[in-house]
Amino acid sequence: MKGFRNLTAFHSARRWGFFLALILCLLAVPAQAWADPGSIITKIRSSQSAERVRIVFEFNNIPQYKVTTLENPLRLVLNLSGSVNQAGLSQITFNDPIVSKLRLFAAGAGKLQAVVDLKSTYMYNVFTIKNPDRLIVDIIKNYDQKLVEEVTPGIKHISWQRSTGDGPVWAHALDVDPQAGYLIKPVLSNGIVQGLETLVPMSQRARAIAAVNGSYFAPDGTIIGLLKMDGQIVSTPELPRTAFGILPDGKIIIDQVDYEGKVELPDGRTIPLSAVNRERGPDELILYNSFYDATTRSNPYGIEVTIINGKIAAINDNNSPIPPDGAVLSAHGAAAKIMSGLKIGDEVKISQTLGTVWDKITWALSAGPMLVKDNSVFLTTKIEEFGPDVAGGRAPRTALGITADGHILLVVVDGRQSTSIGMTLLETALFMQELGATDAMNLDGGGSSEMVIRDTVVNKPSDGQERKLGSAVVVIPGRIAN
């Protein structure tokens, strides 16, 4: 019995050794050799035209597939399940401004990848045809695709991609119906003139549904141009430039606006105001109010008087605190000499005007130039003395327009990138007309051009990230209070 048990154990060990060797042999064979390909590419062909590049894969049986797009580098990837390439081609190179080449390679376990390398942005369509079985990839070069979605009743977001002879353009437009209970108004970065802030926190603080960048600004945050908030002048234009303004009844107008301000002293003499809420220059008289900052930030080479309820409450050399219910007049040179005899308690009258209509405006913001007036293209680039930094060539653009039925258009065009080349001012004006604007104006552009919807950046700023701004235009629930 003992010998029988040993013999049985010997045969059992031989059997297990055989099975183990068989398993090791199976594991040594590449997995792809044991996978049933299911689908075989028998032929690959392509064609080119001005409108598209077409790539056709002929199969014995159409496989399951998944399409993936990559942005950096720009690629269209088809993952083909259970497929092998027996067409005799693994790469096709194209002489085309959009499509670079097609590459095929095994991705393991019976999977195949077809990668289309691209030079510029594109639209695509992937579909199949039976009898014979074909999978077709169309890279569309001439396209014009518009996607419209409702952000909330009364506000539509339009994402518009189109090809042009010079390259692709991608634009975003907000169509806002004020009659649906929405207000368009400007806001300041950090709530004050001094300093900069990105658009998302500005939008969040205003509890805005959407926002775009606003006026031109200096590196310290100083607004370049007109800004009026809650009926108070926050910043003034150096020369007449285009602005939008909101009247007490909620109506929005677009026009060129100029500023005039003066200070009347107790003896009847008047001094012209040079500006509001910016750095004081030689021989200037600047008015600072609570929108600027906590203090005037001025140098000690002048004189400053604090005005509360029309009377001088304090006199300082520089960097005066700005009262929330008053203003500070900061003078230098000739203006300071005239004001040198003032004393605490003296009455001082400050007068400011933007013109009969604009004095009634509750909110206003300027940038420029004008783009469309009375339903016609009307570029005021030279009139408003804009240089090549604004007027030159294609760039990212932001614009505001009014339609015939009173809707407000806020538009951002991406630029300086492979997915969008931007627009010239003329192209922006024509695009605003195409969207339905009867009047339109240009806002700050370049790396500042940005649109936020519900705290999310929807466009692609050319800096690759949000730029810090001086101001923004927001869309909020509500109406102007009469």
UniProtKB/TrEMBL annotation:
**Keyword Signal attributed:** yes
Which superkingdom heads the taxonomic lineage of this protein's source? Bacteria
Taking every annotated instance into account, which residue ranges of this chain make up the domain Phosphodiester glycosidase? 305-475
Q: Which InterPro entries does the protein's record reference?
A: AMIN_dom, NAGPA
Keywords for the protein's UniProt record, in alphabetical order: Signal
Signal peptide, first to last residue: 1-35
Which residues are in the AMIN domain? Answer: 45-139
One Pfam family assigned to this protein is: AMIN
**Protein name as catalogued:** Exopolysaccharide biosynthesis protein
Lineage per the UniProt record: Bacteria, Bacillati, Bacillota, Negativicutes, Selenomonadales
